[in-house]
What we know:
The chain has 5 helices and 2 strands, in the order H-E-E-H-H-H-H. The protein is mainly alpha-helical.
Amino acid sequence: MNSKEYYLSIKDDRDVWGSQFPECMNCGQKATWLPLETHEIERRSHAPRSWGHRCNYLRLCSVNGCHNEVDQRSHAEQLNLKREKDPDHYDLQAWLRLSDPELNAPERVTEQDVNGGE
Length: 118
């Protein structure tokens, strides 16, 4: 399956997930005239055929620069935002397996990292 076919196979679920969030997960801006964007925590290039999972998404606005700002944060910081704003789909183990299906690097990001070192 090529990348376009993969995207088409997950698009409906991605859209359904995104429709649940009427506000930017970073700044709280409501989607009005400019729609929110779905951001992937694990980049598509790092998980080319597995990035399309609800544990990997954040809803962000571009009006206030949130999409670009959040993209500059560490994975742990992005996952902390995910856990706070979308706890039903926060799953660190599933997220780790997106780019590492065999979980060869289980400590790449830990719950302690997500908690800010606490």
